[in-house]
Amino acid sequence: MNLAFSLRGVSKRYDPFELQALDLDLPEGQIMGLVGVNGAGKTTLLRLLSGLTLPDTGRIEVLQLPMPEQQVRVKQQIGLASEDMRLYGSQSLAWHMDFIQRFYPAWDAAYAQHLMQRFDLRADQKLAGCSHGQRVKALLLLTLARRPRLLLLDEPTTGLDPIARAEVLEALADVLQDERRSVLFSSHQTQEVERLADRIGFLHMGRLLSCEDKESYLGRWRRLVGQGALSDGVQRWPEVAQLRRSGSLLELRVRDHSEALMQRLGAEGLQLSADEPMSLEEIFVTTVRSQQAAGVPA
Ligand SMILES: Nc1ncnc2c1ncn2[C@@H]1O[C@H](COP(=O)(O)OP(=O)(O)OP(=O)(O)O)[C@@H](O)[C@H]1O
């Protein structure tokens, strides 16, 4: 199995923030969604992968090539779209397309035209006169039409209206029809990550809390509702992320659901009335709160 990227022991410090000893892989052909609160380190990770920032320690390989040694070859084959990237406001989209295709032989002019229609953009419009959403879509068009093998997207749908968001998400899903292409995207839209990603990575305060296949990650988490006189010690079980009491009612959010856990809870006196899956949004909030409760600030 080829890897779209691999990080081993990667760290980057921007005092007081530090991305710490990060080990992370993405198999080729997959889409990874990266979630985390503001300042968790998502953009830093994307910038490290694209060679815009150098790590303090560790090893980074992108498309099986070492970075930064092979960054010229890597940059030909990856595409980074991030809101802080500058387009030339005095120039049109057509000018940008012409400019970029001179440097990227894989530029796909027919696909660029297709995306222009899909994103409802005009080639002759100067970018300074575009709305925020139009500029986001223009940047995505310019990145996607290069047909990069690894697409790195920093909050690709922020500020887009629901129609534009749907078009962008469908365009991303199309990218993966070619099984050699891969995507890493960060997003605060947990529903989008839940819908689109094969793998979910969770960054918190510069630490990777988890990264795994979406189905197994979502499957591990459950919301349990019931009654009973559970001891306070249950709250400290590693599987239990949250225990709340409301009158005689108990609500537990567990991060590692299993038959053995249910038996232990039953032995503690839990009379279960509901055992439900959790959305990524609920898992996100519960994880951040349990980190805060354990003394890790958000
Ligand atoms: N070039 C830089 N110089 C100094 N500090 C930086 C720099 N880049 C990032 N940081 C700091 O690193 C931390 C992580 O920032 P980063 O942009 O990676 O977070 P993020 O998860 O993308 O956040 P958001 O969701 O708000 O976009 C922040 O505390 C930020 O201030």
Summarize the helix and strand pattern as letters.
Answer: EEEHEEHEHHHEHEHEEHEEEHEH
Termini separation? 36 Å
Strand order of the largest sheet: 6-7-8-3-9-10
Bound molecules: adenosine-5'-triphosphate
Question: For this structure, what is the CATH homologous superfamily of the largest domain?
Answer: P-loop containing nucleotide triphosphate hydrolases
In which range does the helix fraction lie?
25-40%
Mean pLDDT: 92
Regarding quaternary structure, how should these chains be classified?
A: single chain
Class computed from helices, strands and strand pairing? alpha/beta
- Mass-distribution shape: elongated
Indicate the low-confidence ranges by residue numbers.
Answer: none
Give me the count of strands: 14
Task: Kindly identify the CATH topology of the largest domain.
Answer: Rossmann fold
Q: What summary fits the major beta sheet?
A: 6 strands, mixed
| Overall domain count | 2
CATH architecture classification of the largest domain = 3-Layer(aba) Sandwich
β-strand percent reads 25-35%
Radius of gyration: 22 Å
Question: In CATH's first tier, which class of the largest domain applies?
Answer: Alpha Beta
Total helical elements: 10
GO molecular function: ATP binding; ATP hydrolysis activity
Organism: Inhella inkyongensis
Keywords: ATP-binding, Cell membrane, Membrane, Nucleotide-binding, Transport
Protein name: ABC-2 type transport system ATP-binding protein
